Amino acid sequence: MKIEKVMHLAQVLKDGEKTRALENSQPTKKKHFSLETLFLDFLTIIYSHWPGYPFPTAPPVDPFAKIKVDDCGKTKGCFRYGKPGCNAETCDYFLSYRMIGADVEFELSADTDGWVAVGFSSDKKMGGDDVMACVHDDNGRVRVQHFYNVGQWAKEIQRNPARDEEGVFENNRVTCRFKRPVNVPRDETIVDLHLSWYYLFAWGPAIQGSITRHDIDSPPTSERVVSIYKYEDIFMPSAAYQTFSSPFCLLLIVALTFYLLMGTP
């Protein structure tokens, strides 16, 4: 600290002592000051004049732990939809599940600024399905909500089995993590996860925190029923990467290649 600043602080302290002496001279009320009080006042003056005085700040918020794809097929089951080799941060849609005690922990992520969801269905069709969705609202929060598909319409259900929920919206992706009990009391809108179900995967935009129609007309589904006790790592190519994988397209490529090699008569 510069000499001028120390002298300034000393003068401030001296003026404060004069003021206290004047107050003590008043006959109405007598005050007593100890050396400890003066020392504390001196420290307060120094810290209040010191550049970069550290004001109390709110405790930091724990960051959202990234989804580990290396565990897929080993300690948790995963579904990936998108470009071959994609992960939880690059797939169009990603879901993982694993058993933790009496709960199932789900992790969902999708390339959207609205919502990402998984539905539990007795078939591969939308309607009569138990749905868990992570919704990005206008305040920047990601909330886990419970829905029930009534035909093509998702109705929000107030009874929400989700617990320990957390979510984040980063890089134009909605990502969340939550737990849900394996066994629940029988209810039309909530299924028991110890049974096997087809999984319906969907994502789309939201308006003021309310979900709207999913991004694609025919969202992907699991090819077969899923058991939470069996961990697999299943990849499903998105439409952009399905073009040359169908039998018809492969046959067409072979025919064109043969035609070019043989030439025309």
From TrEMBL:
GO biological process: regulation of glutamate receptor signaling pathway; regulation of postsynaptic membrane neurotransmitter receptor levels
Classification via CDD domains: DOMON_SDR_2_like
TM helices/strands, residue ranges: 244-262
Family annotation (InterPro entries): DOMON_domain (IPR005018), FRRS1L (IPR042789)
DOMON domain mapped to chain residues: 91-206
Nucleotidyltransferase listed as a keyword: no
UniProtKB keywords: Membrane, Transmembrane, Transmembrane helix
KW Membrane (keyword) present: yes
Protein name (Swiss-Prot/TrEMBL): DOMON domain-containing protein
